[in-house]
């Protein structure tokens, strides 16, 4: 297991579109294990492979209080969205220190493969639904700040670049 480096906004590599996983093999299981360790170490409630510069459709999520309920989504696809929308405050390990409100469908049904290559379907609401959508956006090269106004995006970009200069 290894803690991987997380790409930081505005790194252009965060805008790469991830490919499907063809075979759920030991290479993918090692990636899942390293991503889980990286997520728990951060700490965060989710991580998309895009954030560790691996452009394949792999997500890990753990929204449990006890941090012992790892959920793995390989090649996730949204089957359906609920009709209701809700606003949640979001944050992102790739945009540290920035939190803002994003409106999304409150409920989603997702189909994916687990780490053994077995297909499953899951309906989610609340934080899990937010997290699934936030991570699936990463796989499409989208970061949550792209839902905010252009003025906010530009301020966040400057703040992140300044932070990078201070820690370089
Ligand atoms: O740790 C995280 N918390 C979070 C809070 C509200 C909405 C989404 C998230 S995901 C984030 C981890 C992360 O950046 N995943 O891509
Ligand atoms: Ni994120």
Characterize this entry briefly:
The protein is an alpha+beta fold.
List keywords for this structure.
7 strands, 5-stranded antiparallel β-sheet, 3 helices, binds nickel (II) ion, Peptide Deformylase, alpha+beta, globular, two-stranded antiparallel sheet
What features would you describe in this structure?
There is one protein chain. This protein has 168 residues and is an alpha+beta fold. The chain has a single domain (12-167), classed as Peptide deformylase (Peptide Deformylase). Helices cover 29% and strands 26% of the residues. The protein is built from three helices and seven strands, in the order αβββββββαα. It has helices spanning 26-41, 126-139, 150-167; strands at residues 46-48, 58-61, 71-81, 85-90, 100-105, 107-113, 119-125. A five-stranded antiparallel β-sheet has the order 1-2-3-6-7. A two-stranded antiparallel ribbon has the order 4-5. A hairpin with a 5-residue loop joins strand 6 (107-113) and strand 7 (119-125). The mean pLDDT is 97. Ligand GNR binds next to strand 1 and helix 2. Ligand GNR binds at residues 44-48, 51, 90-94, 130-131, 134-135, 138.
